Amino acid sequence: MEISVRRGDSIWAYSQLFQIPLRLLLDSNRSINPQALMQGQTVEIPGYVTRGYQIVPGDTIWRIASTAGVPQDSLLLLNPSIQVNSLRVGQMIGIPVRVTELVVQTVRPYDYGDMLEDLNRLAEIYPFIRRQSIGTSVMGKTIPEIRIGIGPKQVHTNASFHANEWITTPVLIRFLNEYLLALTNNGSIRGLEMNPLYETTTLSLVPMVNPDGVNLVVVGLPDEEPYRSNVLAINVGSSDFSGWKANIRGIDLNNQFPALWEREAARGPRTPAPRDYAGTEPLTEPESQAIANLTRNQNFNRVLAFHTQGRVIYWGFEGLEPSESEVIVNEFARVSGYQPIRYADSSAGFKDWFIQDWGRPGFTIEVGQGNNPIPLSQLEQIYQESLGILLASLYM
């Protein structure tokens, strides 16, 4: 929600009026000088939206504010051109409405368009989040990263490396929404105050690493060539892509990292396939390159990759994991009920590469149980189990 600065106003006064932490106001308005607000300047107020209201006979600013349950001064800030003593019947004004509920909902299989729509909505309401593109998919879809928090500890999470594991994306999007909601309402999640975590931790989220693959599974065959013909050929003519894990070129993105890649490539398919084909060499795909470049350019203290299924957490790689990994994974297990497993019978994964090259904690979290794609009916249980892990990743 945008308001217009009046002479003598201050960011601190807005924080008090709208009951928004000063830090969030400052981070929502990085381009302005809080020490020198200028009259008429626009300021973003996070955690609010504007609702239209039409003046009726007998209305006064005081009466409208009282009925709406908002401070009169907030109405004046939102409607700078209003004439307080001469309201016109039929005139439209804005009412500031504090957002107190989740705005993202998952009621159907979740595709790339759903994610963009939710991220756009969240960025509009919570302008203190930072959003950037870390690259594009084979078909040119932007791969967004969201950052929230200002702390020195950096935690990275990602989801949907694998196409038919798309259910992991709404898990991260809902957590983002719940976190933002708690911050702007001075609230908590499971009894944990969120604002101190914002100050100590920077959270990085890449909610959908494999957008082309997800859309193939959720939406169906693309119209564009040569992708349409190629995936049909790889899938032996079948239009059932429920078993598809790879990107649109038939390369498994989580078998693409230079961490014993040769071993994984040797035991997988030799040509593009719906799953497990590691490619001709490490990091050939733009999606895996995007995640690798992001990781190289940042200073992540730990990484969490969400996959399906099995309700387990893999946390080691070739004995290279640091001792703190076991402490962290035991807390993840405690809050989720998932089983920690040190080593998986696989290599060349993102968390493997992170452990190998950085010597820091990396985790592959396998949510849900059953056959991929995990049905939407499991989403609530998966979210509640994952919520404990995501919170622990911030406070540990």
UniProtKB/TrEMBL annotation:
The active site is at residue 366. This is LysM peptidoglycan-binding domain-containing protein. Its cofactor is Zn(2+). The lineage of its organism: Bacteria, Bacillati, Bacillota, Bacilli, Bacillales. The keyword Transferase does not apply. InterPro entries: ENP1_M14_CPD, LysM, LysM_dom_sf, Peptidase_M14. One of its GO terms (biological process) is proteolysis. It comes from Paenibacillus monticola. Residues 108-394 form the Peptidase M14 domain. Pfam families: LysM (PF01476), Peptidase_M14 (PF00246). Residues 1-45, 51-95 form the LysM domain. One of its GO terms (cellular component) is extracellular space. Gene3D superfamilies: LysM domain, Zn peptidases. SUPFAM superfamilies: LysM domain (SSF54106), Zn-dependent exopeptidases (SSF53187). The keyword Protease applies. GO terms for molecular function: metallocarboxypeptidase activity; zinc ion binding.
